[in-house]
Amino acid sequence: MGTRYRRILLKLSGEILAGDAGHGIDEAVIGRLADEIREVHALGVQVGIVLGGGNIFRGLAASARGMDRVGADYMGMLATVINSLALQHSLEKRECHTRVMSAIEMARVCEPYIRRRAMRHLEKNRVVILAAGTGNPYFTTDTAAALRAIETGADVILKATKVDGVYSGDPQKDPNATFFPRISYLDILNRGLKVMDSTAISLCMDNRLPLVVFNVGVRGNLLRVVQGESVGTTVGDE
């Protein structure tokens, strides 16, 4: 079966890697994710990945407790590097060639993020994990995902979540929350829906970059999205 996209940017939250424990890295979860990424990659799809770091350290929460926001955000960026190295290890165990590129240079650990080099890796069919957010405090990894997707010419951002897509409220708290199979960026901003932060949504909207929000907890959903099945919520223009 063919694929809808040639190049994707997959956004994974740190919380997903934590599994049921809620913190740290669950080896079984990261292994299952690596299996699914390998399946998509085997179809010839070029894969970029941005990981969050909330399973290890959450900068915004730490700054709310009185820590300096800039320092806390840098700690959060370093947490994403740990997650990126863990996912790289899982992918390479599955013979999936992977590069970690960090916005904060740490030459002994991974490559520095250089846009042209990242694109070359993608063209050579290496999975590219883009770590350390944008390298700047005050920007989330959602914004980093939008920025890197635009920079590397991705066809779509696939935002992996624990719910089936975008709802009018939190479906785990509000049984009457409405599911949206399709919604515009402007609607998300106007309704204040917590899909991605407003900077990330605005970046996608201004650059007409489509976004698919889907439940990565269902085995095979990532493959179904890439193959063009209607899974989750598609976010785009009006």
Order of helices and strands: EHHEHHEEHEHEEEEHHEHE
CATH topology: Carbamate kinase
Largest sheet: 9 strands, mixed
CATH class: Alpha Beta
The quaternary organization reads as single chain
Tally of helical runs: 9
Question: What does this 3D model show about the protein?
Answer:
The protein is α/β, with parallel strands linked by helices and 238 residues long. The protein has one domain: 3-Layer(aba) Sandwich (Carbamate kinase). Helix content is 39%, strand content 19%. It has 9 helices and 11 strands. The strands form 2 sheets. A 9-stranded mixed beta sheet has the order 4-3-5-2-1-6-10-11-9, with helices on both faces. Strands 7-8 form a two-stranded antiparallel sheet. Helix 2 crosses helix 4. The longest helix is centred in the middle third of the chain and has 25 residues. It is globular, with a radius of gyration of 17 Å. The protein starts with 6 loop residues before the first strand and ends with a strand. The mean pLDDT is 96.
